[in-house]
Specification:
This protein has two domains: 1-96 and 272-354, 3-Layer(aba) Sandwich (Isopropylmalate Dehydrogenase), CATH 3.40.718.10; 97-263, Isopropylmalate Dehydrogenase. 40% of the residues lie in helices and 19% in strands. It has helices at residues 12-25, 39-45, 51-59, 82-92, 116-119, 160-176, 191-204, 217-226, 238-251, 290-302, 307-322, 340-353, and strands at 3-8, 32-34, 62-67, 97-103, 123-129, 141-144, 150-153, 180-185, 211-216, 233-236, 259-263, 269-273, 325-326, 336-337. The strands form three sheets. It has a ten-stranded mixed β-sheet with strand order 2-1-3-12-11-4-5-10-8-9, with helices on both faces. α1 (12-25) packs across α10, α1 (12-25) packs parallel to α12 (340-353) and α10 packs antiparallel against α11 (307-322). The longest helix has 17 residues, at 160-176. The protein is globular, with a radius of gyration of 20 Å. The mean pLDDT is 97. Bound molecules: 3-isopropylmalic acid (IPM) and magnesium ion.
Amino acid sequence: MKIAVLPGDGIGPEIVKQAVKVLDFFGLSDAVDYSSIGGAGYDELKDPLPEATLKLALEADAILLGAVGGWEYDKLPRDMRPERGLLRIRQALNLFANLRPALMFPELIHASSLKPEIVSGLDIMIIRELTGDIYFGEPRGISLNNKGEQEGVNTMRYSESEIRRISHVAFKAANKRSKKLCSVDKANVLESTELWRKIITDVSSEYPEVELSHMYVDNAAMQLINEPKQFDVIVTGNIFGDILSDEASMLTGSIGMLPSASLDENNKGMYEPSHGSAPDIAGKDKANPLATILSLSMMFKYTFSDNDKAERIEGAVRTVLSQGYRTQDILSENMSLVGCEEMGDKVIEELRNV
Ligand code: IPM
Ligand code: MG
């Protein structure tokens, strides 16, 4: 077993450190190899995805990523920016299936800005296609058009095979849950998503037990706020998934709690918290490490098919919450404030107890 650990930028290193304690607890210290990505990669080797990092990631069975990005890199040429490292590793490893759960932890119900009755028990899985769409479509760029005016171009593109493979992932996920799948598109306006709707409808004949519905993305954005519990599994393209997954995470009010998985065809995966690098609190021992620790739980479940470890990690996190420990992002009245390091220690203590 080989796990590439890429701490990245901002709070990345401190949250990853807590997750690595969990790997140590399971006796997996020797499986871990570190490398740099994002701004850290640029600082070290002038590349947001250094060759050595890509090599390590290609050789590993799974990757644990902290976060990338920081103000100091915002003025770099686009190819050198931290985000570019992330997009390149997704593409190089063919991590086309991005699983982003939005799960309401009962202890944190008051962290949501929506009324408790709207969000209690919320459990949505957003499946975002991650290696196609307008993120990678060609042509792209900024150039002069024939009127001599600057013009920015990006291309929204989906091939049938790309749509088919993400559709299968989504139907299989729906099959294991409530057997309801909602595909989100903009088929009334955009041809690439008209094809999306056609292909996923075609694939649905292979999964007769799953009920497939379609929703336009603007309506989906509205319904997520209006009546989020109507959703179970949502599948959508790269750009819509980027936006809707941020929206869905906010329903829970605690983005610091949400993990994610990006998988290839063989369930090799990159696991990372859904939140960003939070440079404003970096290095202050204030970050919430639970999303990163829960990302390990997803790693054991999806890549290593080790449900026992996955459930032990999730159980430990839930117990620590029920004991009242909170980092500042999820703090409420009468709860005990802990820092990043201490939150990690609490999870380990709990793992030891069960
Ligand atoms: C995400 C992020 C990335 C994306 C950025 C950092 C490139 O927003 O993972 O959702 O747009 O995919
Ligand atoms: Mg995003």
